[in-house]
Every structure is written in C-alpha cells, then in structure tokens.
Amino acid sequence: MNRNDTTARIAHVFRGTFVHSTPRAAVEILQNCVLGVDDKGKIAFIEKHQDVVSLLEIWGFETSDIKQLGQYEFLMPGMVDTHIHASQYSYAGTALDLPLLEWLNTYTFPVEAKYKDLDFANDVYTKVVRRTLKNGTTTACYFATIHTDASLLLGELADRFGQRALVGKVCMDCNSAVPQYKESPILEDCYPNVKPVVTPRFAPSCSSSLLSELGEIANNNKLHVQSHISENKEEVELVKTLFPGCKSYTDVYLKHNLLTDRTIMAHGCHLTDEELEIFRETGSAVSHCPNSNISICSGMLNVRNVLNHKVKLGLGTDVAGGYSPSMLDAMRRTLDTSKALTIQDPQHKTLSFEEVFRLATLGGSEALSLDDQIGNFVVGKDFDALRVNVCVPDGPIDLFPGEGPKVILEKFLNLGDDRNITEVYMAGRRVVPFPDT
Ligand code: GUN
Ligand code: ZN
C-alpha cells in the first residue's frame, strides 16, 4: 500500500468488486476490495477490505464515506478508443455501401469540408464527446479535420466534458476530391488530459515532403502519430504506385520517420508478417477497427497473428466507417471477426472475451503508450473507471441464480449498453452522469 499522506488527500473510497487486466491475467476479478482515489485523481490503494478496514477508520473514513457497490455492480477501467473520427459522427450509421476510396470521395471529404463552420463543428463535437463518454470511453484518440479552429474546439470540448483525448488535426495535401484541403499541424498543448497527435491522413493523401515534415515535427516534439495503413487491398495497390521507391506500405511511414513507440496505425488488415516485424521493432501499434472493416468490406485483421508478433494492439470504433461509437460494440465485432477467421481456418485460435476485454482497456492504453498512466487499477495510475450495474430497471440484461462475477462480466460485454454504465470517472473526476442532467 502506498498511503503515507494525510487523510485529506483521499477523495473517494469504493468497496466491492473490481474487474481489470494485468500483464499476467486478461481478467482479474477482485471481490470485497477497497479502492481509494486521492485528490489528484490517482489510485492511492487497492486492497482486500479486511486488510484496510481498521486503517480507514484511523484515516477518518466513516463507513458512510465509502461508496459501497451493490451485488450486481462492479468497477472496471475506462475504455480506450484508439481510433475514432469525431468529424464523421454526423453520419454514423449511414453511408456504408461503398469501398474505402469511393467512400472517402463520396461521403467523407464533403462532410469534413463543413468543419470550417464552427457552429456545425460545435454541434457534432459536443454530441460525439458526450455519446462516447456515456458509453464508457474515457480515452479517445480522435481524428478531427484539416480545420485548425474546429480541431482546437474538439480539444476544448473533451476537456470540458472530462474525456482524456489525443486530438489530431488531419494533414493532407493530395488526391482529395475537395480542393480546399491545406496543411499545418496544431501543436497547442494546454489541457492536462488532452494532447495533440500528429495526423497524416494516410499515405495516398500526403506528399512525401508533407510526410517528412510531419515525421520531423513528431520526433522533435515527442508527439504521438496516428494514421491509416493497409485497410483495403485497392489502397495497398495505390500506395505501391504512389511510392514506388518503398518496399511496402509500412516502409512508406518508416522512411518518413513516422513509426515510433508513440505511433498508432488504424486497420492493418493486409499487413505482411515482415511489416508486422517493423511494427514490433519500432514499438508502433495497430488499432483494430472491426466494425469499420466489415461495414465497408475492407478486410479482416488477424488479431491473433498481430499479438503473436508482439505488436501492441488496441481497439477502435473508427466512426463513421464503423457505425457504432461504443467500445462494447468494438469488443463484440472483434470477437465476431476472430470467429469468422476460425470458420475459415479451424487452426486459428479464436480470441476469448477476456482477451478482448484486455484489448479495450489495458491493451488500448499500451497501444497509445499511456499504460504508465491508465489502463488498469494499479496504485499511482489515474482513476479512469466505469461503474457498471448489470441489473438496472428495464435494462438489457437478465440474470439467473448462481451466476458469478465472471458470467456477469461476460453478459455485460455481450449484452450491456450505456444504461448499465451508471457512472464514469476520468482522473478521479466523475464525468457521467453529466452535471447538466
Ligand atoms: N483512410 C483515410 N482516411 C480514412 C477515413 O476517414 N476512414 C477510414 N476508415 N479510412 C481512411
Ligand atoms: Zn479511420
């Protein structure tokens, strides 16, 4: 236990069941435990109740100060969406009838052009931040658009509503059907939990000189980098023709110094084992976005193969190629895709729900190189957490006698929704329910 300071520093104490991942266990369930959060939003202790009950009294904690979780409640780490286009939320759930390159030109670029209008941006960005927070996304790695003011507004809204975020002003200077796309990344860094991420859209949208410039900015400022890679076969072929001097799609980003241990690349459905080796060597991560991969028929990433290559991997919604803003959906689609791969090849080892839970929490934090700060309930990390109640009135889950915490977790992951997420905390601050509701 790491608790030598005065009692005044403890802001919350929860008692009950805690579910999280550790480096050894995809799911660890801690029952009848007590978790303390200090006034800086960090986890101060997590212990068996009987081991701290007397200390709590010495620290002046009345029983009534302790937030007691009910029989059908647990706390889990906040979920990490490693890839989401905030700007595409306005058409999420529609426009899924074209493959990637046509989809971008037909739907995406015209909608993204609207973000020069800050009122439009404010409406969509407010809605996407609130919707994802309500669904348990405490950390989001966002693509905005090319518009600096609207991108800054997204950062401000994430900060205001209490979502941890990486915000990328999209950089692109070629091959767009819409003429007004121009460049300059934003480097403002003024919120404790909202940071910039260098965001070349993807290789086909960027000249070699733009990619080099962005690689230099990222390395000089130790910034995160995000982009797309090997999502669809037509795109992979296009990259070969656009960058004939590069050995592979991965080599394009490697040659422009964009692959570091703070890099996250979405999709990677068609990466070769050789390319995955480069990801491992550079410490770069993959964001698996299964809803999008199926919805716009891009491909099916073999997550097991990526993990076997010791490449960091998190899950993403990829709104709006993916139609759902919920990370619960991302987990379910990850399982579906893994099962589809097993149908194709019975030798394929299907992912378990426990492994997928890990990918949505600790795995996401590792993919974003934020695992020293978030991802599970370890003393000293920020308290980003969801209070889950699987037994809410008129909720989506029915329970039956004898079901223990592991079954309850599995039912929540497969059947639950935002009605079951009764509270959300980010860095110790309760951000859901929203203060205005
Ligand atoms: N590749 C380049 N831009 C995009 C985008 O906005 N969505 C998806 N799914 N892939 C992309
Ligand atoms: Zn994307």
From TrEMBL:
User: What GO cellular component is one of the record's annotations?
Assistant: cytosol
From the UniProt record, which GO molecular function terms apply? guanine deaminase activity; zinc ion binding
The cofactor note reads: Binds 1 zinc ion per subunit.
Top-level EC class: hydrolase
A Pfam family reported for this protein in Swiss-Prot or TrEMBL: Amidohydro_1
Q: Which SUPFAM superfamilies match?
A: Composite domain of metallo-dependent hydrolases, Metallo-dependent hydrolases
**Keyword annotations of the record:** Hydrolase, Metal-binding, Phosphoprotein, Zinc
Q: In which pathway does it act?
A: Purine metabolism; guanine degradation; xanthine from guanine: step 1/1
Q: Which NCBIfam families match?
A: guan_deamin
Per UniProt, what is the name of the gene that codes for the protein in this document?
LOC107673426
Q: What is its EC number?
A: 3.5.4.3
Q: Does the keyword Zinc apply?
A: yes
The coenzyme or cofactor needed here is: Zn(2+)
What function does this protein fulfil?
Catalyzes the hydrolytic deamination of guanine, producing xanthine and ammonia.
According to UniProt, the name of this protein is Guanine deaminase
Origin superkingdom: Eukaryota
The segment(s) forming the Amidohydrolase-related domain are 74-431
**What organism is listed for this UniProt entry?**
Sinocyclocheilus anshuiensis
Please give a single GO biological process term from the UniProt record.
guanine catabolic process
Q: Which family does it belong to?
A: Belongs to the metallo-dependent hydrolases superfamily. ATZ/TRZ family.
